[in-house]
Amino acid sequence: MPRRHLFLCPDGKKASGGVAVIYDTAAKIHEMGYDVAIMHLSSKAGYPHSANPPLVYDQEWGRYETKNVSRLGYLRRRFNYLKDRLVPGPLPKVDLRPSDVIVVPDFMLSAALAAYPYQQIGLFIQNTFAAQRQISLINAVDLKRIKWALGVSDICMQQIDLLGLKNGYYLPASMHPHNFIYQKNKEKLITYMPRKRPDEARYIHKVLEQRGNLKGYKLKPLDNMPLHEVSDALGRSRFFISLQKHESIGFPAAEAMASGAIVVGYTGLGGREYFTSDTGIPVTEDDSSALILTLESAISEYETNSARLDALRLSASLHINRHFNNDRFNKAIEKIWKDINMCS
User: Fold this and answer.
1) Which fold has domain 5-174+325-343?
2) What is the residue-averaged pLDDT of the chain?
3) What CA–CA distance (Å, rounded) separates 7 from 38?
4) Which of 21, 39, 81, 265 stands the most exposed, by the fewest C-beta atoms within 10 Å?
5) Matching CATH topology for 5-174+325-343 and 177-323?
6) Exposure string over 301-326, b if 16+ CB within 10 A, otherwise e
7) Thinking of the domain 177-323, which architecture would CATH place it in?
8) Quick one: 199 exposed, middle or buried, by C-beta within 10 A (0-12, 13-18, 19+)?
9) Could you tell me which Gene3D superfamilies the record lists for this protein (predicted)?
10) Four-CA torsion 34, 37, 38, 41, nearest 10 degrees
């Protein structure tokens, strides 16, 4: 009989990035008829999703996670536990079984291993840098409790191999390119997302404006915006500054490429899987001076002769749509989950 798989998921205000991938993965497995649920920390958690699998909660792993937070964070967490007991939310408490498999996001690994000593562990790596920090906190015996691992990019699969995990599966996460439609006609607009590098973003914006080499282009940060506004802005943008940092894949640059923007900037390391000189204009990580000069050079080239860069951005959009679409993600999940359940 197939085991139940419980996907640990952080609580928050919205499902984006890695959390959205957790929801997409669990929803697809649920759609396939397998026993699966998403397990939050709070009974009041949960995100809107078109195909929600069952949602449950359990506070046990949070009791161990608090060891790695500040004193204020610890007190806030304890207060939230009390509120959940006094005024519970809509989620039922999980009826944990010894046969359950806990599917753990990389940054929760050490807490999950401590909280669930009798369950099998599946590791979901979406951020190799978070995984590295967690691996440093656990011992070799605990590492052996990981029965299989999912990785969303080449760099994730490399880490799975380095750790000696025998059952590693590549899951090409979808960045939902249908939300970022290629636009041929663009405005003189340069956009960027400052969240990962706020100080550097302000510096780059200021220096670009002060130098006066933008040739009429306007700079616009995309921050705290709903999806449809981000999609609209990327659709109008001729250039996009990639400020990705410590990514296992990193979708901002991919979304810009899908929309037809010319992407200049950092791959975030993991983004090297799709962000190359064939799809954009990558710059050495953290070299903000090179980024500024490279963007100015690209603007000058486009205003003089746009043919090469127009061909580049069209090729990039096609590449993203081929490699990070829903169909490829769904087919991968179907194959992976059959393999995992055969091995259980």
Assistant:
1) Rossmann fold (3.40.50)
2) 91
3) 5
4) 81
5) yes
6) ebeeeeeebbebbeebbebbbeebbe
7) 3-Layer(aba) Sandwich (3.40)
8) exposed
9) Glycogen Phosphorylase B
10) -160
Residues paired with residue 36 on neighbouring β-strands, in sequence order: 5
Domain ranges for the chain, please list them.
Answer: 5-174+325-343, 177-323
| 8 Å CB contact between 281 and 263 | yes
Q: Write b or e for each residue in 70-88: b if 16 or more Cβ atoms lie within 10 A of its Cβ, otherwise e.
A: eeeeeeebeebbeebeeee
The confidence band for 33, taking pLDDT boundaries of 50, 70 and 90, is: very high
For the stretch 214-256, pLDDT in tens is 999 999 999 989 899 999 999 999 999 999 999 888 899 999 9
- Which of 59-63, 80-84, 203-207, 321-325: highest mean pLDDT? 203-207
Q: Which residue has the tokens 């909660």?
A: 57
